[in-house]
Amino acid sequence: MRNHHFLENIYARRSRDTLQQWLITPKNNGQQIGKSFYPQDLKALTSGIQPSLNPAIKSLLNDIRYLTAADPLAEVMSEENFHLTFLAITPARYPHARDMPPGANLIAIFNQTVENRELAVADLQLVALPDQLLLAGIPGEQAEKNRKMFWDALRASEWQTPLQQRYPGQDAPPEFWHTTLLRYKAEKLPPGVRDYFISHSNCRYGAVSGEIRLALATYNWGEVAFLL
Predict the structure, then answer these.
(1) Calpha distance 15→6 (Å, rounded)
(2) Phi, psi for residue 77 in degrees, rounded to 5
(3) Are 110 and 47 in contact (CB under 8 A)?
(4) What φ, ψ does residue 142 adopt, rounded to 5°?
(5) Are 177 and 7 in contact (CB under 8 A)?
(6) Given strand 44-49, what is the order of strands in its sheet?
(7) In Å, what is the CA distance from 11 to each residue of 2, 69, 124, 193?
(8) Model pTM?
(9) What residues pair up with 31 in beta bridges, in sequence order?
(10) Measured distance CA(191)–CA(193) in Å, rounded
(11) Contact between residue 100 and residue 44 where contact means Cβ atoms under 8 Å apart
């Protein structure tokens, strides 16, 4: 299983790659007209936690909101919708709950593989993508085992195709344990946010924990209906 050092290196390497991209083209190329990270009104089957937030995370969100105030290209995670993904299952494709396939087998697979519903993710830190700011951390070993078991069971079921569509070309669960704090509709984050990331890249924001739940949700969990 992946350990603390392994994930720290993954996060650090991804941020270094982003910093290099920012240096190569330091100027922002402006708004990407029509850019959308996910369908705005469609929902995906997913799983994750909605934890209580510690003061450090609340302060971080306030800082990001301040830095992007009145910027129409910025979408900042709200405290009310804050979530951390365990494993997404399908692409965003369902307008309503009535449009999704029967979920009984999905619930059975989840119950059989996710032995411990409590997910704690510690050592939370900022990770930069060119146009996004993530908060990522380190899960416990049991959580990694449970997610791998859930992944393998989904791949051996009728959920294999939508899972592959959600994670094209992947034969293992995603490496990151994260939530997306900021999405920006341009090639790269604005200068103020980039500077903030650089000055806070060594900060740690504690831990979050909560019960893993199956959900039908929009990409930002602004609309969410729990299956379990």
Answers:
(1) 15
(2) -60, 135
(3) yes
(4) -65, -35
(5) yes
(6) 84-85, 44-49, 213-217, 224-226
(7) 13, 27, 11, 18
(8) 0.93
(9) 186
(10) 5
(11) no
Whether the Cβ atoms of residue 63 and residue 135 lie closer than 8 Å to each other: no
As a whole number of angstroms, the distance between CA 202 and CA 141 comes to 24
Distance CA 40, CA 219 (A): 8
> Strand 74-76 and strand 44-49: pairing?
unpaired
Q: Enumerate the β-bridge partners of residue 28.
A: none
Amino acid at 188: K
Name residue 69's amino acid: A
Is residue 212 within 8 Å of residue 117, measured between CB atoms?
A: yes
**Amino acid type, 61:** L
Question: How confident is the prediction along the chain (228 residues), in pLDDT tens digits per residue?
Answer: 457 889 999 999 999 999 999 998 767 666 565 566 777 789 999 999 999 999 999 999 999 999 999 999 999 999 999 999 999 999 999 998 888 887 779 999 999 999 889 999 999 999 999 999 999 999 999 999 999 999 999 999 999 999 999 999 999 999 999 999 999 999 899 999 999 999 999 999 999 999 999 999 999 999 999 998
Strand-by-strand arrangement of the 208-211 sheet = 74-76, 178-184, 132-139, 118-129, 208-211
**Which H helix or E strand runs over 127?**
strand 118-129
CA separation (Å) from 212 to 29, 51, 110, 191, 227?
39, 10, 10, 36, 11
